[in-house]
Amino acid sequence: MTKNAHAIAATQTKARIDAELMGIAGAVLLGLTLLFAAGFAQASVLHDTAHDMRHAMSFPCH
């Protein structure tokens, strides 16, 4: 392998690792956002939201 080929391979590996880390960071951020939103929401708001989502998915709930 030439020096140029090694440089390209290293750049591709770094780009792949960066993309994987961005995906992981996005998932963690989304999870924390949902956790804190649910933690600070009033119980009635959460219940109404879950109830409305059941209706939106045509799932019988009562």
Which SSEs are present, and which pair or pack?
Layout: H1 3-40, H2 43-56
Architecture overview:
- The protein has 2 helices and no strands.
- It has one domain.
- The protein starts with a helix and ends in a 6-residue tail after the last helix.
- The chain has helices at residues 3-40, 43-56.
- The mean pLDDT is 82.
- It is mainly α and 62 residues long.
Could you write a compact summary of the structure shown?
The protein is mainly alpha-helical and about 60 residues long.
What level of helicity do the residues show? over 70%
Instruction: Tell me, briefly, the overall form.
Output: elongated
Structural class: mainly alpha
Uncertain residue segments? none
Q: In angstroms, what separates the terminal alpha carbons?
A: 67 Å
The ordered H/E elements are HH
- Integer tally of domains: 1
For the biggest sheet, the summary is: none
Number of strands: 0
Strand content: under 5%
Alpha carbon gyration radius: 22 Å
Roughly what is the average pLDDT, rounded to an integer? 82
What key attributes describe this structure?
62 residues; mainly alpha; 84% helix
